Amino acid sequence: MTSHKDYLLVKRSLICAAVLTLVAGYTSSTASFAQTPRTVAAAAMTSSAKPASGIDMTNADLAVRPQDDFYSYVNGSWLKKTEIPADKSSWGAFYELRENSLTQLHTIVDAVSAEKDLKAGSNKQKIADLYASYMDEPALEKLGIKPLEAEFARVDALKDKKQIPGLIAHLNSIGVNAPYDLGIHQDAKDSSKVIADLGQSGLGLPDRDYYLKADDAKLKDTLAKYRAHVASMLTMSGDKAAKKNAASIVALETALAKIQWTKVELRDPVKAYNRVELDQLHTLAPHFEWDGYLAGAGLKDKVSYLVISQPTYIKGLDKILQDTPLPVWKAYFKWHVLSSYASQLSKEYVDQNFSFKGTVLRGVPQNEPRWKRGISVVEAGIGEGLGQLYVEQFFPPENKARMEKLVANLIAAYNHSIDGLDWMGPDTKKQAQKKLSTLMLKIGYPDKWRDYSNLSIKRDDLVGNTMRASEFEFKRNIDKLGKPVDRAEWGMTPQTVNAYYNPELNEIVFPAAILQPPFFNANADDAVNYGGIGGVIGHEISHGFDDQGSQYDEIGNLRDWWTKEDHEKFAVKTKALVQQYNAYSPVAGYKVNGELTLGENIADNSGLAIAYKAYHLSLDGKTPPVIDGLTGDQRLYLGWGQVWRAKVRDAQAIVYVKTDPHSPPRFRGNGTLGNQPGFYSAFDVKPGDKMYLPPEQRVIMW
Question: pLDDT tens digit string along 272-281?
Fold first, then answer.
């Protein structure tokens, strides 16, 4: 997953990543199914680690009835025997693929590093030297805090608050957390243009609730530990008033948290689009030195307006800027410089940084091996350069062709589904199908690779390398202003185990790394692939028609193309879905936020339904074979379920509930199934079964 900073710099759009998504089903009348509809044939249990069906039933718990808890049925044995690795906050199918990807990338980086006489300025030289700069621990131990001294001096040089906006522009450019972030992306009201926008940021904790929920004992304890962590880090850096400054920093962040929009409020693209002409910015924040920020960020003479995503936040920030003494601001900025780069300093900083961000926040006992962290640094700095080598070595070209066929079938199924919707009128249907017909597909890797020739990487300068990489990306995005939109650009690297939909380009993107089991199995029959990658495809297409994506038209403009009546019918369905997911609780005392997760829940439910229909269309009237004792429908649903296997530490689960627009894996699984008619026939689910929902309570959208 990309960081918040990277996400904003690439595109402050509603890019919707799958993370994990699945689906499926087909009803069979074969003898074996008819004989054992409520238990699933014992023949499905196989000793093969990779059965012909593509389903590994050794992970299942056959003592659990699929009609009562499908997630535990398909994953129960795995859940019982699997321990989360000590260096992970979560573990499951998605994370296993990420580990595989890291190992593959490590092989590539080691091979590149072993090459003699790498050409200066080449991607290979930069990959090798960036990795070497991270792995040279003795050199980093000698440097200590020295790599950040120039940035601390820059902060200390502030003479008055008018200079703060210029400093924020600089911090934005080097990837340091600041009170607001700069995003460069398409104009939501005119997708042919690239614009700049400002959005709230600046907190050291994952969400405003960590500062404001005084009645939540766990969050309150985390805040106290955060204050102590800030004091410890400042003391290590030589701050003589560390404890006092830590208290002031947390108080300032609390003030920022109070004026920030909630995660649910941030989901509204209409409210987040607020165009302000440059000569009117002072009316929004009169005490803010806008010229200093615009010049520092390189925006002057490139834009005539900004989009202010949360205008009330900027207004509130103006008052906080005025009310907060300059020394407190200096302490705050120095802290965030230190926090942003602590993982790249000497061991004492790395360990203290991890003890809070890893152990306290996410419950992770130990840090990852250094080589894994080093690979992640290379990915962050020169991701597409590394991705190009990854594709050459690990992505079979035939996977792309098979994916294209799957996507074509999913789109055909979506068109067919729209035709049959009983709640949508003909005018809205026509617009929906128009949007579907212009959907752009990207599979595997970009046609044109990013040019890193202007990025300087030195073998003995880790922090400098990271700052220059951030500045390179910042400037690359600033340079898009005033130029035609590059519709060929990718927002993820090929080695990323994920997928996404971007409403401003009306595109779905599937990086190479996700095209492997259990998502995509080239050796399995089609059923398991419709249940795995078919669900991902359906999920991403569905983001174009969820509560956010449906507000964008076929060319990516924020435009209402729905009739009033259809809006009202859609709202009834979304309200029902919110209520369903609000009832789920992954950790005692915490429930899923159905409003925050609404878009992903719509995509899950719709993606499941569409993949089911696509599979049936692909059969062309033929009866699918029974494989390993499993019918076509059963293989689909089991394929969907095995992708969802995951274990999450409680601390991480709380972070997810507060910040993640996706529901927890168990509820993305079971919650989605209850709304699918095909599931009931596949496993003979009846009234009285725990998975059963009466037809009138099932939410069926697309």
Answer: 999 999 999 9
Render pLDDT for 191-210 as a digit per residue (tens, 0 to 9): 999 999 999 999 999 999 99
Alpha helices in 203-346 (DSSP H): 209-212, 217-236, 242-259, 281-284, 290-297, 311-323, 326-341
| Alpha helix ranges (H) inside 82-216 | 93-114, 123-135, 137-143, 149-156, 164-173, 209-212
Query: How many C-beta atoms surround the C-beta of residue 355 within 10 A?
Result: 16
Is the alpha carbon torsion for 615, 618, 622, 628 positive or negative?
negative
Helix (H) or strand (E) holding 185: strand 180-187
pTM of model > 0.70: yes
Q: And the tokens for 687?
A: 């009234």
Cβ burial of 519 (10 Å; 0-12, 13-18, 19+) is buried
Q: Report strand pairing: 180-187 vs 190-200.
A: antiparallel
CATH of the domain at 301: 1.10.1380.10
User: What are the residues whose beta carbons fall under 8 Å from the beta carbon of 700, sequence distance 6 or more?
Assistant: 573, 605, 609, 675, 677
Tokens, residue 175: 């990837």
Domain hosting 161: range is: 148-367
Over the stretch 297-339, which tens digit does the pLDDT of each residue have?
A: 999 999 999 999 999 999 999 999 999 999 999 999 999 999 9
Per the CB < 8 A criterion, the answer to whether 148 and 225 are in contact is: no
Residues 343 and 422 in one domain: no
CATH assignment at residue 582: 3.40.390.10
Alpha-carbon distance of 72 to 283, in angstroms, equals 56
If you write DSSP's letter for every residue of 556-593 in order, what string do you get?
A: S-B---S-HHHHHHHHHHHHHHHHHHHT--SBTTB---
pLDDT at 1 over 60: no
Is the omega angle on the peptide bond into residue 518 within 30 degrees of 0, that is, cis? yes
Residue with tokens 């202007």: 454
Question: 304: how many CB neighbours lie within 10 A of its CB?
Answer: 10
Q: Which of 319, 352, 367 is the last residue of a domain?
A: 367
Measured between alpha carbons, how far apart are the two ends of the chain, in Å? 28
Q: What is the C-alpha separation between 273 and 99, in angstroms, rounded?
A: 38
Q: What is the C-alpha separation between 388 and 446, in angstroms, rounded?
A: 9
pLDDT at 522: 81
Q: Is residue 471 part of a domain?
A: no
Compute the distance between CA of residue 287 and CA of residue 161 in angstroms, rounded to an integer.
9
pLDDT score of 3 more than 90: no
CA 596, CA 582: separation in Å to the nearest integer? 10
Q: Which helix H or strand E contains 351, and what residues bound it?
A: helix 347-354
- Same domain? For 500 and 632 the reply is yes
What was the pLDDT predicted at 523?
A: 83
Are the C-beta atoms of residues 90 and 649 closer than 8 Å to each other? Answer: yes
